[in-house]
Specification:
This protein is of the alpha+beta class. It has a six-stranded antiparallel beta sheet with strand order 4-5-6-9-8-7. The protein has a two-stranded antiparallel ribbon with strand order 1-2. Helix 2 crosses helix 3. The chain has two domains: 64 residues, Arc Repressor Mutant, subunit A (Orthogonal Bundle), CATH 1.10.10; 159 residues, Chorismate lyase (3-Layer(aba) Sandwich). It is elongated, with a radius of gyration of 21 Å. It starts with 5 loop residues before the first helix and ends in a 5-residue tail after the last strand. The chain contains seven helices and ten strands. The relative contact order is 0.14. The mean pLDDT is 84.
Length: 237
């Protein structure tokens, strides 16, 4: 068994204090020197622990000020298909959306490959930005075969969850799919809408979703700010 190094132990202790609420969002953490006294260790060890927490998004750093506790991140599951709106609601933060596109397009080479449809198939393209409070956290795009979702363009997708509209108005519930998660560099469009520097690292989640009987499918792409999400592998319930 691999031994737990001192910096990993310190990072775990700080993480635990954040999880139980002893350190709250935007609280200033003790300085490196103070942590050295708390844990009776060298500053280099504390710095390694803090750097790992920075990389994981638990804390953030303000130059010449110190380290602070980051906002709780949104739990994204790898195996369970569910509405992001519901997961965000558990944070108790106000959320809103801005619709960029809601239109019918012809399938192109990319979507033929991704969705397995014929060239020229009519698809509904839906793209929006999701905000947590005033912070843009994700740029989401979805494609559906238009022939199965008449009237979707008239639905209120600003104030309602896409998943709930599909289930309540069309009786369509996506239950499983093939998805992948990648780290990508922000392109000019993503930089604009997510308010990050170009080439900044972002998380891309993309793949096909299916209903239980595989009758309906949708191709989704979500580009997300890395510091606002955490991923977990859960089994379908």
């Amino acid at each position: 068994m691999k031994a737990i190094t001192r910096d990993i132990y310190i990072a775990d202790e700080i993480r635990y204090k954040i999880e139980i609420g002893e350190y709250k969002p935007h609280d200033k953490l003790p300085s490196e020197r103070q942590f050295c006294e708390i844990f009776d260790c060298q500053r280099a060890t504390v710095r390694l622990a803090l750097e790992s927490l920075l990389d994981e998004g638990w804390i953030y750093c303000i130059e010449r000020s110190g380290y602070y506790v980051a906002e709780p991140r949104i739990m994204e599951t790898l195996n369970v298909v569910s509405s992001m709106s519901g997961r965000i609601e558990t944070l108790g933060k106000p959320m809103h959306r801005k619709v960029l596109f809601l239109r019918v397009i012809d399938s192109n080479k990319k979507l033929i490959k991704k969705m397995g449809v014929s060239l020229g198939t009519k698809l509904i393209e839906f793209e929006r930005v999701r905000y947590l409070e005033d912070e843009a956290i994700s740029l989401e795009t979805a494609y559906f075969e238009a022939e199965y979702f008449h009237g979707l363009l008239d639905k209120d997708l600003v104030n309602n969850s896409l998943f709930s509209i599909l289930e309540n108005d069309y009786g369509v519930r996506f239950t499983h799919g093939r998805q992948e998660i990648l780290v990508v560099n922000a392109n000019p469009v993503e930089s604009k809408y997510l308010q990050v520097e170009e080439n900044s690292p972002l998380v891309l989640r993309r793949g096909l979703l299916y209903t239980e009987d595989n009758k309906y499918k949708s191709y989704h792409e979500s580009v997300m700010r890395m510091n606002r999400y955490v991923y977990a592998d859960e089994e379908n319930e």
